[in-house]
Write a structure and sequence with these properties.
about 1000 residues, Rossmann fold, 30 strands, six-stranded mixed beta sheet, TIM Barrel, six-stranded parallel beta sheet, 41 helices
């Protein structure tokens, strides 16, 4: 096999900012025009591109791919005979990772290779579990580079990872913006698997030789082509068999007899060679950047530090040093660019250049041969002596350079009089030394792309000095004097501010705490509970704390453990409304005719029950019916049980006629409200009971019914719980209010905390009038307001107050910030949901310092923007689910990885089945879980063999029967029928 050229880093049309012509036929066409024998497929992480590869390519010897015969024939038909040569493909493509490591955001590009299509499929399956690989041919993953390498090697031990364009400021292993200082910092314990580094367009081997830490790596060069015409602008030259293993063995070894060197851009032509600021036409050598402190003299922002500067930072050798065993390299100018200058036209893609290019290739052969190998006399014979002279100057390094900077490609010229030679380097065929410094050229404006996102309006909020401890204490001097931090529980009080301390020590009456956002609501409530125990006013068993979420309950338990220790804290009842009601029902289930091991049906379970009892309803109708059933169980709204104001908590009116009329029935049965057909209501609840289940609405409704009907249970709770704390009191609804009323009727002391301005559950029947009526419901009662905000800077707090001034209470306007960080609040008005979503994407790109070269080169992100955050540091809050589709589309289009918090994981069908099977191990008679399992496996025909429920909801099988035994028995019975 003669020596050949390999371009191992290209893209497909699935990558952002690439040509639509980047398909296999066009890639093959231009690879043969360039004289490239081996080309990477590009974008192997993209499923759509993999399908196209299988459409056009077929495996061949040595774990490479070749064009299918019909595709090859079509490509060759477009080529002159001199260009119809061997062409092979290797499976390889680029992957971008953005992640936090060492307190910095890292943005690294990698080229990965695999030997077989099956390995690529496995690799894609692994990556798709991590992030979005379908919106961009070069996916952006929130994945550590080291972990990406591990996944690659686990997929196939023959997999290869080469860090891409290692010096580029953004998205590179050694980049100045978001890279590392060494390979080992990036890849940790897997660093030994890295054996090659891609130099990139803005550096050449001599620049890399100055860093001795890179001596052990083979330097490779590839085009990173975003269009077929850019193929081969950099390439490797090899002399091996055309096989996957021979290729990478040669690169790994650096054997000069097999890896012959590289074909390079002139590094000055790369768009990140010098330092500078493109928008201000400032272009500097590293020394000039240092002299100016790195700041642009025009706009004052930090300039983009280029590759040459970054090499200077890491270099431990002087210019001109040659590393041991250095390999040859050749610096070239792409032939279309030479022709454009030769013909005096601006564009290398003009029709005139194209015609001359095709004529030369047809007569002389592929581009590499013209630029590197052919005698100048042969070139002069076909192209003329002036063209031959220009190519000769390029080979000798006699070029004039205008170095690229800050995303602006450099310019290399050969057709100028008395072109100064670039100097001498010891190994290349052509001279490639350090360029002479050039002053900043005039008239280099930055791009102003159409459709750019408009700049948002910055709203400056006047700052106020943050509230000091002394000023707050002075304002609350009376409270401070009344509640000093001394005596038992002094350590608890010492951790609180005066307002919080007043709330904790108000124990002789009922207490309503008005706590605005960020005022330490949970801390105050838990401190009060801990103080009761520490001072001996209550035992842990006498305390009941009710929260709205499991997370809030867990946080409260953790805080109580910190103050009281695990043993005492564990004896305090801390639960959500639903968890408390479920525990109450399990303890006394028989009193309502329920089994103690009843199943709590999720929304998905309940909808499945409705599907069986009302098969004629559509999915939307079933959802609507379910929501109306749940609303009915939450209690009357908004008439508040038919009364003009809430029923007094202190007055037990458990036999209230309005609620009795709604409930009716015996043993927990609930009568259908007028707005729901009684037949559907009864069929739904009968099916639940037959399956040994209750739904979420039943938990509270049945708990209320139990306490209203059973004086013994009610008395037991009154005797136990003497102190009641309720979180988020502004969000309680009618049935929760009734439950609290029944618990308090025995004389318990109540502390409720919340903020009526944060009431968010109106759609679930919550009514903030219960909050406002608290002082009248419970007497004597005291109201304490928490005013000190620990969460938000002054600017944010005042901006929020201004926005909500006409909608919030006076208390909200009195909130005071405890710190005054400099914060700019931006208000952006979008013309549509799509424009709004695009603005969000733009902000994310700014925060991470750009997600791709497209972000930087189009001006969406300033060259001076640092990568301050990783994707995991950013949250996007949307007000309604209706906004989500536009956000998803914009994020997908930008290739930004994200996760949405919507339906719980437990609602996923597969997870529901797994949980159902797990529950059946604990309770083989849980009919609802049997329904879930049988429906999932399409075994509903066995339902009759399994379902012989008793009135209590127990299924066939007898005590102790395992799910496997029941299922086996059912299958056998079904087979006999």
């Amino acid at each position: 096999m003669p020596p050949y050229y390999a371009d191992l880093h290209i893209h497909s049309h699935y990558s952002r900012a690439t040509s639509r012509d980047l398909d296999i036929p066009h890639i093959a066409l231009w690879a043969l025009k360039k004289g490239t024998t081996l080309v990477a497929t590009g974008d192997i992480a993209h499923p759509g591109w993999l399908a196209e590869l299988e459409q056009h390519l077929e495996p061949t010897e040595g774990d490479l791919l070749r064009l299918k015969p019909e595709v090859e024939q079509a490509v060759h038909a477009q080529l002159a005979p001199a260009l119809r040569r061997t062409l092979r493909f290797v499976l390889g493509g680029e992957i971008s990772t953005i992640y936090k490591k060492g307190d910095r955001t890292r943005k690294i590009h990698h080229v990965v290779f695999l030997p077989t299509l099956d390995a690529v499929r496995r690799f894609q399956a692994r990556l798709e579990r991590i992030g979005n690989i379908r919106s961009d041919g070069r996916p952006i993953l929130g994945l550590d580079s080291r972990d990406l390498l591990e996944i690659l090697l686990e997929t196939d031990p023959r997999g290869v990872l080469i860090p891409a364009h290692i010096w580029t400021p953004w998205f590179a292993l050694l980049g100045s913006k978001s890279g590392f200082d060494s390979v080992e910092e990036c890849f940790d314990d897997l660093s030994e698997h890295i054996f090659a580094l891609e130099t990139g367009l803005s550096s050449d081997p001599p620049m890399n030789w100055r860093v001795s830490a890179l001596d052990r790596y083979t330097l490779v060069s590839h085009s990173d082509a975003h269009s077929p015409r850019k193929l081969g602008r950099e390439a490797d030259r090899l002399h091996t068999d055309l096989t996957y293993d021979a290729l990478f063995d040669a690169i790994r070894s650096g054997d000069p007899n097999r890896f012959l060197g590289t074909v390079e851009f002139f590094p000055e032509e790369g768009k990140y060679h010098y330092d500078g600021h493109r928008k201000c036409s400032v272009r500097w050598k590293p020394g000039e950047t240092l002299a100016h402190g790195g700041r642009c003299p025009v706009c004052g922002k930090m300039v983009t530090v280029g590759v040459l500067h970054r090499v200077e930072e890491l270099a431990d050798r002087p210019e001109g040093a040659v590393k041991p065993n250095a390999l040859p390299y050749h610096s070239l100018i792409p032939l279309p660019e030479v022709l454009a200058e030769f013909l005096g036209v601006r564009s290398a893609t003009s029709k005139r250049v194209e015609r001359e290019y095709e004529r030369l290739l047809a007569a002389l052969g592929p581009e590499f041969e013209i630029l590197l190998d052919l005698p100048l006399e042969d070139i002069a014979r076909v192209g003329g002596p002036r063209l031959a002279e220009g190519i000769g100057r390029m080979r000798r390094g006699e070029v004039l350079v205008e170095p690229g900077y800050d995303g602006e490609f450099g310019v290399i010229r050969v057709f100028v009089e008395r072109t100064p030679p670039r100097g001498k380097n010891p190994l290349p065929l052509f001279d490639v030394p350090e360029p002479e410094g050039l002053s900043a050229p005039q008239g280099l404006p930055g791009p102003d792309p159409e459709g750019a996102v408009p700049r948002s309006e910055a709203v400056t909020v006047p700052e106020k000095t943050a509230l000091s401890d002394s000023s707050l204490a002075a304002g609350l001097g009376e409270a401070e004097a009344a509640y000093p931090a001394r005596g038992l529980g002094a350590d608890i009080l010492a951790a609180l501010n005066p307002e919080q301390r007043a709330a904790v020590r108000t124990l002789d009456r009922h207490l309503l705490i008005v706590a605005g956002p960020g005022t330490g609501k949970t801390r105050t409530l838990t401190a009060r509970l801990a103080y009761l125990v520490r001072t001996g006013r209550a035992t842990p068993e006498q305390l009941l704390a009710i929260t709205f979420t499991n997370r809030a309950a867990e946080e409260m338990r953790e805080r109580l453990t910190g103050w009281l220790g695990a043993e005492s804290a564990s004896r305090i009842t801390v639960a959500t409304f639903h968890a408390f009601a479920a525990g109450l029902l399990r303890t006394d289930a028989e009193r309502l005719g329920l089994s103690p091991d009843f199943v709590i049906a999720t929304e998905a379970d309940a909808l499945e029950v409705l599907r069986r009892v009302a098969p004629d309803l559509t999915a939307r109708q079933r959802q609507d019916l379910y929501e109306r059933i749940q609303a009915a169980k939450r209690g009357p709204h908004p008439t508040l049980l038919g009364h003009p104001s809430p029923l007094p908590l202190g007055e037990e009116r458990g036999e209230g006629r309005a609620q009795r009329e709604r409930g009716g029935g015996q043993e927990g049965e609930v009568r259908a409200p007028d707005e729901i057909p009684s037949a559907l209501w009864e069929a739904y609840h009968a099916a639940l009971r037959a399956a040994g289940a209750v739904d979420y609405g039943d938990l509270l409704a049945l708990a209320v019914r139990l306490l209203e009907q059973d004086a013994e249970v009610r008395a037991a709770l009154h005797a136990r719980y003497r102190w009641l704390a309720v979180d988020e009191y502004q969000d309680i609804n009618a049935v929760q209010y009734r439950l609290l009323r029944l618990l308090v009727a025995g004389g318990a002391n109540v502390c409720a905390i919340g903020d009526p301005d944060q009431a968010i559950y109106g759609f679930r029947g919550a009514d903030s009038r219960y909050f406002h009526a608290f002082p009248q419901d419970l007497q004597p009662a005291q109201v304490v307001r928490l005013r000190r905000n620990y969460r938000s800077a002054t600017a944010i707090l005042r901006a929020a107050q201004d926005l909500l001034r006409d909608q919030t209470s006076v208390a909200a306007q009195d909130l005071l910030a405890t710190f005054a960080d400099e914060v700019q609040v931006e208000v952006y008005t979008a013309a549509s949901d799509g424009a709004e979503a695009e603005f969000v994407v733009h902000q994310i790109e700014r925060l991470v310092g750009g997600t791709s070269y497209f972000s930087v080169d189009t001006g969406r992100v300033e060259g001076s923007d640092e990568a301050r955050f990783a994707f995991g540091d950013i949250a996007v809050l949307y007000r309604t689910r209706a906004q989500l589709p536009a956000l998803r589309e914009a994020l997908d289009r930008a290739g930004i990885p994200y996760q949405t918090q919507g339906d719980a994981l437990t609602q996923h069908p597969g997870v529901r089945v797994a949980l159902g099977l797990a529950w059946l191990v604990l309770n083989p008679h849980a009919g609802l879980h049997w329904d879930t399992v049988l429906h999932h496996f399409r075994l509903e025909r066995l339902r009759g063999a399994l379902l012989h429920p008793s009135p209590s909801g127990r299924w066939a099988g007898g005590e102790g029967a395992s799910p496997a035994a029941l299922l086996t028995r059912a299958v056998a019975q079904a087979a006999l029928r």
